[in-house]
Amino acid sequence: MEQLEQLLLDALHPAVPLTPERLAAVTPEQWQAWFTLARKQQVVSLLWRCLQRKGAATSLPDAVATELKAATKRTALLNLRRYGELRQLLNAAQKEQIPVVLLKGIYLADVVYENPGLREMNDIDLLVPIEALQRIADLLESLGYEPFQPVDPAVTLKVCHHLPPFIKKGYACFEIHWNLPNPGEAGYVEPDGFLQRAVAVRVAGGEALALSPEDLLLHLCFHTSFHHHFAFGLRPSCDIAHLIDHFDSRLDWRIVGERATAFGWQRGVYLALRLARELVGAKVPDAVLECLQPGAGEAAIVELARRQLFSDKLIASEITPSFAELATAQHLFEKIRIFWQRIFVSKEYLAAHYALPVDSPYLYLWYPRRVLSLLRRYRGRFWLMKGGDAQLGGIVTRKRDIVGWLEEKR
Questions:
Q1: What is the mean pLDDT of residues 165-180?
Q2: How far apart are CA 136 and CA 98, in angstroms?
Q3: pLDDT-based confidence at 335, cuts 50/70/90?
Q4: Lowest mean pLDDT among 144-153, 246-255, 329-338, 399-408
Q5: Mean pLDDT computed over 341-349
Q6: What is the pLDDT of residues 352-393, one digit of tens each?
Q7: Counting beta carbons within 10 angstroms of the beta carbon of residue 200, is it exposed (0 to 12), middle (13 to 18) or buried (19 or more)?
Q8: Contact 194, 213 (CB under 8 A)
């Protein structure tokens, strides 16, 4: 599997050639496993473009080339449908004079990758001012979208940086953010600066805003490091590399470094940039990494992040930092303390999680339900790990170590 991972990285790296001899040595079974790996990493469409540019596409087996082309076409069609949905929302928001900032996928696909078929995405992420949350939610519902759970912006502001997803089956999913980090999260930053620095863009045939190049780069790094602890696959590293290529000299690296340090995001930004450079050839200047580097001896954490990046994303997403801490705690009292903290969360968190009014007199009755929910959710994983499941144990241990390193000295 490591050989297939390296082959995928070399295919995505612009400076690494792929010789016909190397590709000819890959067996049919390995080709299928390679395609599956690329699909899990959500880079199939980009991989096909990279292979074409390297002149390696003609060396692929016909079945593999056909699968890659078909997957690229599907991505383009899905994204064009999302563009149509976004255009409707942007037009409605413009009439209501609601500023909308495009985040990540939908902006990257249209502007940075310059091809709607190259950037795979799961949803459309938008950033709006706090005071516009309810209005944008109402607009989405008027367009046929339904929230995943009841929306209460007042509760959301206290526990999460975005509203519950809005879904129209068969069309798109919108995630409406009011900020980039969560409330109370280490490295929390007020959203005003991101909104004030946003720049006007035209995407999907509609007028919108986008984060400034420096803020967008920081957001990509923050999202893959602090929010997903590098278990989100190769796609974020590819995004970082293509963003740097697209903006080139317009990207002010001094500002990137200053804001990363001021926000308390320094470690996550450093590790995300270093991985992007080492894995897919992102053009990150040496001076930037030297400026952001927390200290000597990062080789071990870089390797942990690299291995986590290729881990099972579904399993890794289910493993929270609290579970990782609980599962690896050595003493019973420490386990009890961690579990107790996860049960007795704030009323605001409980209300948001179970879609209840925060002032409901019945809210406290939901704590027992939370206990049962946590036991059902993690009991199987806990016993698998205790039984010596190597894959799960590796994911849990790496998450604990990565989170610990990211949070150190913050």
A1: 93
A2: 8
A3: confident
A4: 329-338
A5: 71
A6: 766 667 677 777 777 777 777 776 766 666 666 666 777 888
A7: exposed
A8: no
Residue 335 CA to residue 346 CA, distance in Å, equals: 20
> Is pLDDT at 410 greater than 70 in this prediction?
no
Cα Rg, the chain, nearest whole Å: 22
**Overall average pLDDT of the 55-80 stretch:** 91
- The Cα 18–Cα 26 span in angstroms is 12
Whether the Cβ atoms of residue 180 and residue 222 lie closer than 8 Å to each other? yes
State the SS3 of the chain.
CHHHHHHHHHHHCCCCCCCHHHHHCCCHHHHHHHHHHHHHCCCHHHHHHHHHHCCCHHHCCHHHHHHHHHHHHHHHHHHHHHHHHHHHHHHHHHHCCCCCEEECHHHHHHHHCCCCCCCCCCCEEEECCHHHHHHHHHHHHHCCCEECCCCCHHHHHHHCCECCCEEECCCEEEEEECCCCCCCCCCCCCCHHHHHHCEEEEECCEEEEECCHHHHHHHHHHHHHHHCCCCCCCHHHHHHHHHHHHHHHHCCHHHHHHHHHHHCCHHHHHHHHHHHHHHHCCCCCHHHHHHHCCCCCCHHHHHHHHHHHCCCHHHHHHCCHHHHHHHHCCCHHHHHHHHHHHHCCCHHHHHHHHCCCCCCCCHHHHHHHHHHHHHHHHHHHHHHHHCCCHHHHHHHHHHHHHHHHHHCCC
CA gap 321, 184 in Å, rounded = 16
User: What would the two tokens of residue 155 be?
Assistant: 């509760």
- What the block records as the tokens of 52 is 């074409």
At which residue do the structure tokens 């001094």 appear?
Answer: 254
State the pTM of this model: 0.88
Buried/exposed code over 212-249 (b: 16+ C-beta within 10 A; e: otherwise): bbbbbbbbbbbbbbbebbbbbbbbbbbbbbbbbeebee
Q: What angle do CA 191, 193, 194 make, to 5 degrees?
A: 70
Distances (CA, A) of 327 to 109, 300, 315, 392: 39, 22, 15, 11
What is the structure's pLDDT at 203? 87
Find out whether 259 and 213 touch, Cβ atoms under 8 Å.
no
Token output for 249? 């000299």
What proportion of the chain, given as a percentage, has pLDDT over 90? 56
